[in-house]
UniProtKB/TrEMBL annotation:
This is Alpha-D-ribose 1-methylphosphonate 5-triphosphate synthase subunit PhnI. It is an enzyme of class 2 (transferase). It comes from Rhizobium giardinii. Keywords: Transferase. The keyword Transferase applies.
């Protein structure tokens, strides 16, 4: 029997007050500002923007602060806010070939046109705690270097000149890009929708799937063709003017993964591509995305689908951390009626089991 809980609203209000108190923390310390979060926790801000599908550093920092640093909660908050925003138009595809590059590395060519730009990276750090960061003062003079604004040839272009990599993806002229934020997904997906889902998918989930492809749970032999991070111009198509208008620049991370392919009846031996593009500086996410993108193209290349990372429905349906959080955390909400029904069923089953066991004991004693 369900018994109504009284005083629920008061308890919830008190929980909100306690949360606000915990969020503020020790009053003897200054409150962390939004500007501090943007400037000093930039990678956290970038992840929230990417997985919430909303490019706004200030709002992403606000969500991080409001969520007390819980990244998925912050993503949830910002994505919920995104649903309230009007849509004024569609931007034209960004041109990452003209990116104002801050970081650009390739694992396939040492000396490539334009050179390698290491940028700010953890790749060469020792992953040891740095006690000097306990102090507020900087440990060294900052390095100031302007990003490279010249267009740089992609590694994939070098391979394409020799005909050794598949052609860059092209959609039919009459193809209308899908929008998973406005339309329910129907499998199988076109690659544009699939990439949308991966771009806002959970970084940890995609990273695990990408790792699985390298451990033998899919047919891939990947090389990082190129990872580039920088600013790209966003332009809004204005039909009444007949041309696109620049809205400004955003920072993105792009990864092109080069994968070995032995060929098939329809395709010659060549390299194939996996692609990743996300907001901000998020190269781990972009790399994982590109590995999973290639794994999900298995059917396109006539490969057997034998691994989770190759199963489109499995990957896309479970990659969204907001949906996953909703399903998992709803278990904390009251399920009193359901549990009482389950409890009654288990009691009846247990009584039948005990009765049957007692009968068997009697027969064995008689024998």
């Amino acid at each position: 029997m369900y018994v109504a809980v009284k005083g629920g609203e008061t308890a919830i209000a008190n929980a909100h007050r306690l949360l606000a108190d915990r969020r503020r923390g020790d009053r003897s310390l200054p409150a962390i500002s939004i500007d501090q979060i943007v400037a000093q926790l930039g990678l956290a801000v970038d992840r929230v923007m990417a997985e919430a599908s909303l490019y706004d550093r200030e709002l992403a920092a606000l969500a991080v602060r409001q969520a007390r640093g819980d990244m998925i909660e912050a993503i949830f908050i910002l994505r919920a806010y995104r649903t309230t925003l009007p849509r004024f138009g569609l931007s034209v595809p960004i041109d990452t070939g003209r990116m104002k590059i801050e970081r650009r590395v390739s694992a396939t060519y040492k000396d490539l046109p334009g050179g390698q730009l290491l940028g700010a990276t953890f790749d060469y750090t020792h992953r040891l705690l740095d006690p000097s960061l306990l102090a507020d003062e900087p440990v060294a003079d900052p390095v100031r270097k302007q990003a490279d604004e010249s267009a740089m040839m992609r590694v994939s272009d070098i391979l394409a000149d020799e005909g050794l990599i598949e052609a860059d993806g092209r959609l039919p002229e009459d193809h209308v890009p899908g929008d998973l934020t406005r339309e329910p997904l129907e499998f199988p997906l076109d690659r544009d929708l699939r990439l949308q889902a991966l771009a806002r998918g959970d970084e940890g989930f995609l990273l695990a799937l990408a790792y699985s492809t390298q451990r033998g749970y899919a047919r891939t032999h990947p090389f990082v063709g190129e990872v580039r991070i920088g600013d790209v111009e966003v332009e809004l198509d204005m039909p009444e003017l007949g041309f696109a208008v620049s809205l400004g620049r955003i920072q993105v991370t792009e990864c092109q993964m080069v994968n070995q392919f032995k060929g098939s009846a329809n395709n010659p031996p060549q390299f194939t591509r996996g692609y990743g593009l996300v907001f901000g500086q998020s190269e781990r996410k972009a790399m994982a995305m590109s590995l999973v993108d290639r794994a999900l193209r298995a059917e396109e290349f006539g490969e057997d689908i034998v691994a989770p990372a190759q199963d489109e429905e499995f990957v896309i349906s479970h990659s969204d951390n907001v949906q996953a959080t909703g399903f998992v955390e709803h278990l904390k909400l009251p399920h009193y009626v359901d549990f009482q029904a389950e409890l009654d069923l288990v009691r009846r089953m247990r009584a039948e089991y005990d009765a049957k066991s007692d009968g068997n004991d009697v027969r064995e004693a008689a024998e």
